[in-house]
From TrEMBL, chains A, B:
Protein family (similarity comment): Belongs to the metallo-dependent hydrolases superfamily. DHOase family. Class II DHOase subfamily.
Organism: Amanita thiersii Skay4041
Known pathway: Pyrimidine metabolism; UMP biosynthesis via de novo pathway; (S)-dihydroorotate from bicarbonate: step 3/3
Transmembrane segment boundaries: none
Gene Ontology cellular component terms for the protein in this record: cytoplasm
InterPro entries tied to this protein: Amidohydro-rel, DHOdimr, Dihydroorotase_CS, Metal_Hydrolase
EC number: 3.5.2.3
Highest taxon in the source lineage: Eukaryota
Keyword Chaperone on entry: no
Descriptive protein name: dihydroorotase
Keywords for this protein: Hydrolase, Metal-binding, Pyrimidine biosynthesis, Zinc
Domain Amidohydrolase-related residue range list: 77-174
GO molecular function, one term: metal ion binding
Amino acid sequence: MYTISIPSPADFHVHLRQGSFSQLIAPHVRAGGFHLAYVMPNTKPPITTTDQALAYKAELERVDHSTEYLMTLYLSPELTPHEIRKAKYAGIVGVKSYPRGVTTNSDGGIESYEMYYPIFEAMEEVGMVLNLHGEIPSDPEANICVLNAEAQFLPHLFKLHAAFPRLRIVLEHATTRAAIEAVKSCGPTVACTITAHHLALTVDDWSGQSFHFCKPVAKYPDDRRALRDVVKEGHPRFFLGSDSAPHSPQSKSIATPTQPCAAGVYTSAILLPLLAHLLESFGALDKLEGFASTFGRAFYEKPVTTGEAVKLRKVPQGNRIQESYHLAGDSLIPFWAGRSIGWEIAES
Amino acid sequence: MYTISIPSPADFHVHLRQGSFSQLIAPHVRAGGFHLAYVMPNTKPPITTTDQALAYKAELERVDHSTEYLMTLYLSPELTPHEIRKAKYAGIVGVKSYPRGVTTNSDGGIESYEMYYPIFEAMEEVGMVLNLHGEIPSDPEANICVLNAEAQFLPHLFKLHAAFPRLRIVLEHATTRAAIEAVKSCGPTVACTITAHHLALTVDDWSGQSFHFCKPVAKYPDDRRALRDVVKEGHPRFFLGSDSAPHSPQSKSIATPTQPCAAGVYTSAILLPLLAHLLESFGALDKLEGFASTFGRAFYEKPVTTGEAVKLRKVPQGNRIQESYHLAGDSLIPFWAGRSIGWEIAES
């Protein structure tokens, strides 16, 4: 029997929602093989204060206390250096920037981060992490669309890194060769998350197939190759952030002329076996420990906890991914529903 | 009251299907303002012989005899120079090449047309038109996907044009600046069709929105600009081929993890008013007559028929596109269902 053991797997980008939906999905972090979840703040309304983040953390712990939740704040004009210090003191780890929020005070659709420099200064000082959704808004006049929105964002990454060289920055869910090369060219304070699904998909996969549609969209085969190569290389500044994002089966499967399908791919419940399957497919299974645990933990200064190893077992006959998950009135269809992968969790 | 009159509008690329579905859609050619339909042969099974094409034409005329149907054959290994001469004699106008058929005898996914050179020679001799679906098959290893499949096809266009300079060739449903420039650079025997929907859409519009998903997929905003610019320029070798393709509402709106949505946009029923709306939006309304009638008719040597003018009327309050069309058990949801456009047919 072929098995591998990963020490305290950590997912550095997850959406866990709130309320009843959260009760269905929060336990999937552990079920999918993970001991740590870096929780996104884009709830409705978003998490913009320390108090909200702590309340949200308590809510998640009530649902499933077996996962360590690292909390984040949503970057918005209301945030102050004082609030940053308070957040750090309360154990909040990062601040997430979304394009929409950043473009509120920007010229011609180009993001300007200058208004947030006092915030970043405080974050650099206290050691908080800046998480960037690295896309600029579409603008047909400037030829900017979902395909080049990430590449066009990269100058902002360079500028922020130059202005705050000690600020730890994570470019989230990279999808392009350009992004991989940009992060590589930065200093040790800049890292990058990669999702499981972007290691699997290209633009062809989401053409007409909304279950593979997410933002940022999967790009060219050569971009996917760059993602796979950096994982295979075992580069320590590139690690897992699943961006697992739950949406109802209805919102994922049915488009009407006035309502497109929801963007997001759900991988939490099957994440570690899926990653083993994918990394094995491109000859990088030996890098799973670094990618899904130690690299991210080192960057975030959250060392491996002993006694939290997760053992995976090779399943030659195939481990069939569940068609859907249900709890009370909520349900979910996971990525690759009904398909077989080569690994399963043996001991957790 | 603001009106314009277009002499015998002609759509040089339409899918009219067969059987009951055909009874719903064939009359939409005239309803959408068109007197001529250049009919695609990709029925099930495809139209590969003169006899099949004539039977199909008779079937369409039984459904609606008010439209002139120009028939085509599906390029396949069964086609012979003898059959080409027979087809020409029977009034069949063109032969359509699809990527799938062409790749049957090809190396490494690159199309090779050499096996069809005897056919093309016969076509050149008798004056038939070669219609090219100009995409090569996706191949992740070679970084070929739906986004660059058209640009990668263009060397084949150049090669065919060089080998058969007198053969009239139409690059169908161009979607990229590269394709527009390629056709422009060719001699007078090479033309290009452009759809209505590709004058409206970019990749952002079909991200998660299957009603805007078609093949070739809509590309970057700069590609859309190139399409609009060549229409605005009034270039006589660029004219309408709607590629209007009907699919059931179910197949357009519902994706499952194992079944993507059907590719295709349906515009026939609203085509001429839609084109007036679109061309007006980018300042090219004065080119509608050339684009939707005289340019294509000149290339195909099908002169304008007197007494077939269609008058459009400006509708300042908006002409709302029907949500759906029904006949017996069949139904259809058109492009921009429920949206308002600025024109309607006044007299036909």
